[in-house]
Amino acid sequence: MKWRRKIKIGYPHAFMALLVALAIGSGVAYVRSEAGGIYGPIFGGIVTGLLVAIIQFAWDWLDGSSAEKLDNLQVHQILPSRDNRVLYGNKIQSSKERIDVLGVTASRFLDHFASGTSPNEESKVLISAMKRGVKVRILIQATVPGSSGDSSKSAQSPNQRIIELCSEFGEKFQCGSYPAPAAHSLVRIDDRSIIGPVFPGQKSQDMPAIEVSSENQLAKAYSIYFESLWRVRGVIQ
Questions:
Q1: Which of 90, 25, 12 is nearest to 56 (CA)?
Q2: Does residue 156 have a pLDDT over 60?
Q3: pTM over 0.70
């Protein structure tokens, strides 16, 4: 029995080989053409054009490979900071099933998207989502040290709003607290998660974050961490 080995050549490799072959062939023809001959400038122009095309294609190919690797990791974008109200607002507005939030106080999140005083609809997209049937869970740390996270807000103000939302929406808005100092931030909206660190002495909104698919391995680790805290959550007062 004879075994035949299949050799697969990707389109980018084949196209690059074709460009190189054409460039070499044109280069040889240019060298062999007589000086001052009518074909010398023609082959010279072809060689120059092909070299430029090879460089451009190689650059785009490498850039595309990097983008493909990010796609395989299910990384959608890297955020220099979490202070992006439009991004979060759009995702909440299009949410269908669930929203999970893990943070320090969640005060900014509620001010921006579940305001009880603002007349703007953009400040109430979380409330609209719950009215559509989206379930929301929020975890905040039990105590807020004066030097950490969103320390510009008092602990009482966001807690009061959380309690009001729990009373108004019942099972659609659940909340809890965890005793450990905040180290991670998570906003999971259906199949997308925005994750990142929390550093002592730094405002949470100024910290970088990554938007990934909720099926990404890193996002799954954050989800497991969230669920572990949720199971032993304390009551917010």
A1: 12
A2: no
A3: no
